[in-house]
Structure formats: structure tokens, C-alpha cells
Specification:
- The protein is built from two helices and five strands, in the order H-E-E-E-H-E-E.
- It is 21% helix and 21% strand.
- It starts with 6 loop residues before the first helix and ends with a strand.
Length: 110
């Protein structure tokens, strides 16, 4: 399941991630954790525009796929000092033009 589908879930994920990585003002909750992987599916209704969901049995209608680079969720993570980098190749069960797997680690706050 995607960790973020709206502003409330984004805030909860951000609080937990910052605590795990030691970016919330205290020591990291997971002292030996250097990074972790998260899969995120970009959504027109939340973090990007340009995706039209397909009808049952129809091929997906994909428009403006480069909008993924402007993902609101990714920008919020980076603004809070979390380094977001692509994580290897996306596993086959997650392959979709709007799904990305990221490695999250401590970075610099913007």
C-alpha cells in the first residue's frame, strides 16, 4: 500500500520518517538504519496532475508522465531534509509509469 494518499497520511509518514532517521531534533529511533525503501504511486488527485484512470478492461490512458518529476510528496520529503533517490529497478509487480521505488535517507534540509 502507498504510504501517502492525502495530506494527513503525508504528515503522518513525514513525522515517522523524520523520527526514524533522526531528523526530528532527537537521536534516530533506528540507530543503525541508514536508508529504507518506499514505493509511491503518483496520483492526479494528490501529488501530480495528468493521470486519467482507465475504465475496466481498457488500456491505461497516460498523459504528462514527466509530471512524476514534480511530485508534491517528493518535494515535501526533500524540503524536510530527507534524501530521495531512485532504488534500483522497480520490481515487476510494481512496474507502472506512475510507480516509483525510492530509497529514503538523511539529507540536507532545504
Amino acid at each position: 500500500a502507498d504510504p501517502v494518499v492525502d495530506r494527513a497520511s503525508q504528515e503522518a509518514f513525514l513525522v515517522a520518517t523524520k523520527a526514524l532517521l533522526g531528523l526530528s531534533g532527537g537521536p534516530p529511533l533506528a540507530r543503525n538504519l541508514k536508508e529504507f525503501v518506499v514505493a509511491h504511486k503518483h496520483q492526479q488527485s494528490y501529488c501530480i496532475s495528468g493521470y486519467a484512470a482507465p475504465t475496466t478492461g481498457a488500456r491505461p490512458t497516460i498523459t504528462q508522465a514527466d509530471e512524476c518529476q514534480r511530485c508534491l510528496f517528493r518535494r515535501v520529503l526533500e524540503d524536510e531534509g530527507i534524501k530521495v533517490t531512485p532504488w534500483h529497478r522497480t520490481p515487476s509487480e510494481f512496474q507502472h509509469p506512475f510507480v516509483e521505488c525510492w530509497s529514503l535517507s538523511p539529507g540536507e534540509r532545504r
